[in-house]
Amino acid sequence: MSASSQSSCISVAMCTYNGSRFLPEQLASIAAQSRLPDELVICDDGSSDGTAEIIEEFARTAPFPVRLILNIQNLGSTKNFEKAIGLCTGDLIALSDQDDIWLPHKLARQAEVMESVVALGGLFTDAELIDDRSQMLGRRLWPMMLFTLRKQKRFRAGKADKVLLNRNIVTGATLMFRAELRTVFSPIPKSWYHDGWIAWMLVLYSKLDFIEDSLIWYRIHANQQAGIENFNRTNQPTFSERLRVAKREEPNRYLTIAGEMRELEQRLEDSRDRKASIALCIRHKIEFFQQRGMPYASHFERISWILRNTSNYYRYELGWKCLVRDIVLVFV
To answer: Rounded to 10 degrees, what is the CA torsion of 107, 112, 114, 116?
Structure first.
């Protein structure tokens, strides 16, 4: 790769919180990149397990500058990532979790694409799944996120917003984006995970693309704050127990999703670019989840509403599986 093609400075933004168990492997994988970052910015959110000491020791021999910021107050993952991103000085920013492992060509591959396509605002990738012993699980991230080949084709055919309306498929640990776009997505609402919000902003105000290859090993373990739902774990509750929990908790989850989408709708309203078509779809999703989370007078009323909204279950949910599940929950 020529020197001219490596003109961009790369920052890595990492957030840590009690990550001492897996952090050394992640730091080592960043130091082993074929194209090293120009800086690593780490915001620690009040760790009490020696995380800061691990970072300080790593910084003494790292082949790039390491900046460690210790938060006085715990910010939570979303605002902590927003802070780390804001402190980066590079042209390209790669996000990093504290518990994964990067393949050696991860930064080089993403930066090469970003530098060759100037209109590209962000780029994410697939990942191989590993366990808490760094053993391969024989599964990849995108199938677990339901980012199917059909959705990949729709995404690249100019319908990325419709794909995101169904569910977020962008994992922040695989994401690289242009630093100049920070003004577009800041501030990030506290109700959102940072990667979901950034993905939406990149789709709405720039261009987001992906690399089909797995460029990181994404770790699945019991203590991660946000991971893959319904991944195989021990001590799973029984089917009837899961239904009872869903009956109790799902309405609040639906209303939470409606609230998140209202934040997105408000950001669009505050923008000069109103994007009327997608704003209407967002409004429809808000209404769908609001109604889904509201109490109902009778079983007949609820089932009638579900059947009238069949198309919305495919547009904003996982289709017939969620539709049937909602019908079953009526009788739990």
So the answer is: 170
